[in-house]
Amino acid sequence: MRLLVVEDEARMAAMLRRGLTEDGYSVDVTGDGREAVWQATEVDYDALVLDLMLPGIDGFEVCRQLRAADRWMPVLMLTARTEVADRIRGLDGGADDYLGKPFSFLELTARLRALIRRGAVPRPSILSAGTLRLDPAARSAWRGQVLLDLSAKEFALLELFLRHPDQVLSRTVILEHVWDFAYDGISNVIDQYVGYLRRKIDRPSGVGARGSSLWPYLRWTLPILLNCPPNSCGRPPASAGRSWWTRRRPTRAGSAMWSRVCAAV
């Protein structure tokens, strides 16, 4: 495993290099923020140990630039700045963990092992699809430059969709992630909230659902949620087998609901 330690204090940097090397890691060290960005974009490190107070640019900006460049190696911020506001800023800015100085070296290595187990998977702090953007930390969403006025459930539903692009989510999956056990599974509340969300997303641009960024998703999700075929609005996915239609026989209520959706768009 190869690590990048970004620390401008020479004694601390030497201690980290020695200890991590003894633990079996290959360790590169730099004390400059801009140099850290360059090295981390050129080398696929397994994790970064990042100080905040750096010459050039600080650790917050280093992390922001790396995430903007789609560099997703785990980042452990290591700093004497332990105020709650600093921890929140670092974690919301893309860091994966935050450890204050002074610290236990055993705890540092345990945190690094946990981060490396997660791997360098994409985890953007801002979710986007087309002109849609959603900031989970700020609890805000935009269509273009227009701020969307979403309820808590609409926001959770949009976040779920954006975290699973190009996927069809079943009613069960949506229930498990957006609603709790008190939800009555036989009601049509999911269908209603999908409709509310679609209208609020479309309103800023003045387009119908077919022009929405979510339409490619909704055209397949709604028929499956409603247990009816997409009839005039499309065809089954190419990956679907011959039994696709027989496994999803339309119900009278589902067909009526889907007809109203098609008529509305």
Descriptive tags:
single chain; 265 residues; alpha/beta; Rossmann fold; Arc Repressor Mutant, subunit A; 5-stranded parallel beta sheet; 11 helices; 9 strands; 14% strand; disordered C terminus
What is the radius of gyration computed over CA atoms, rounded to a whole number of angstroms? Answer: 24 Å
Strand percentage lies at: 5-15%
Share in helix = 40-55%
How far apart, in Å, are the first and last alpha carbons?
Answer: 53 Å
Task: Write down the secondary-structure element order.
Answer: EHEHEHEHEHEEEEHHHHHH
Individual helix count: 11
Average predicted local confidence, pLDDT: 78
Strand neighbour order, sheet with most strands: 2-1-3-4-5
Structural class: alpha/beta
Q: What's the β-strand tally?
A: 9
Major sheet: 5 strands, parallel
Q: Any idea of the CATH topology of the largest domain? A: Arc Repressor Mutant, subunit A
Number of domains: 2
Q: What is the CATH architecture assignment of the largest domain?
A: Orthogonal Bundle
- The CATH class of the largest domain, by name, is Mainly Alpha
Overall geometric form = elongated
Could you name the CATH homologous superfamily of the largest domain? Winged helix-like DNA-binding domain superfamily/Winged helix DNA-binding domain
State the low-pLDDT regions, or none. 207-213, 224-236, 241-250, 261-265
